Amino acid sequence: MARLLRASCLLSLLLAGFVPPGRGQEKSKTDCHGGMSGTVYEYGALTIDGEEYIPFKQYTGKYILFVNVASY
Fold it and tell me: Which secondary-structure segment (H or E) carries 31?
């Protein structure tokens, strides 16, 4: 049951990626942390297994959805 719920949530997020932004949302910017500078494209992340570094600059011009999957 939990697997089905998780799959339906992921499908919803995937489909949401195909929705074009509404008026005024194309160039929104939010300052989340005062100690950070630059854009998200200057950073990257390790894959979950830690084997590969993914630079975010490869996603320039595309919609990006960041999901915090930290467990407690």
Answer: none
CA distance 56 to 44: 5
Q: How far apart are CA 41 and CA 56, in angstroms?
A: 5
Task: Give the C-alpha separation, 48 to 53, whole Å.
Answer: 10
Pairwise CA distance, residues 29 & 39, whole Å: 10
Specify the residue for token string 């993914």: 54
More confident call, 57 vs 16: 57
Q: Name the DSSP letter for residue 21.
A: P
What is the pTM for the complete model shown? 0.46
By the 8 A CB rule, do 56 and 43 touch? yes
